[in-house]
Amino acid sequence: MAKDGDQGDWKEYIWNPRTREFMGRTASSWGLIFLFYLLFYIFLAGMFTLTMYVMLQTLDDHKPTWQDRLTTPGMVIRPKADESFEIVYNIQKTESWDMYAQALDNFLSPYNNSIQTQKNDECTPDRYFVQDDSGDVKNNPKRSCQFNRTILEDCSGVGDRYYGYQDGQPCIIIKLNRVIGMLPGKDGQAPYVTCGAKKEDSDKIGEMLYFPPNGTFNLMYYPYYGKKAQVNYSQPLVAVKFLNITVNQDVNIECKINANNIPTGVERDKFAGRVSFRLRINTVN
Fold it and tell me: Using an 8 Å Cβ cutoff, are 265 and 274 in contact?
């Protein structure tokens, strides 16, 4: 009997035919609750939409409104076979170094003279290419300066399609990460790259050639205005050719940027403005 009573109470709680209540509430009570939460969530959605709209009005489509810019840009090298910064190959095994030559070919293809001539301008060297807006009138899209791959001379892949890898004189391409608005160098002094072996390998690195001469990033490629504002921007490059590096041994190399207004090895990132990699050229099977 107790079980029948409990079951009846439970069924009556779900639906009470006498009071026409569902789970203890009438239809009008449920309707008011539904209406309250409906209006409540519509209000929240409206507040969120209004907040997002106001925030979006403060943004610029072509450059970040707020920029936590690093004082020192990062550096990267090409070719880079994987996530590890290592270039290891055997001169006698074409398949071991051909991938590096192909990677450089693919990387430098946008720098072909024909493409650069078509898309970009010949700029005045050794001075910033500043393109300011006129008040609220945006000077977009902004023009970009030509960087022809032939500037890299022996490391351009034009005269030597293997970039010296087959002769044990490989080329490495270095570029700075893009930073909007950065002016690297002051008083007309362009930033430049220097490379050297780590202390334990100082006698193994041999002679090096830099292209362009002195490994400079010409000032005319700065400032950078962003991907949307400067659609055809071509990052300047520096190539380093190793002429007589010690073979059959690991050589740990570090390249860094030098400029009179760019600190290197800042406290929060000791590798800012520099890149390290391992180079090993084998001559025996």
Answer: yes
In the chain, beta strands by DSSP E: 15-16, 21-22, 75-78, 86-90, 171-176, 192-197, 208-211, 238-242, 251-258, 274-282
Distance separating alpha carbons of residues 168 and 151, to the nearest angstrom: 22
Strands 208-211 and 238-242: antiparallel
| Dihedral angle of Cα 149, 105, 192, 133, to the nearest 10 degrees | 60
pTM for the model stands at 0.77
Cα(215)–Cα(230) distance, rounded to whole angstroms?
Answer: 25
- Residues 246 and 253: their CA atoms lie apart, in Å, by 12
Tens digits of residue pLDDT in 108-124: 999 999 999 999 999 99
Beta-bridged to residue 220, according to DSSP, are none
Place of tokens 């520099």: 274
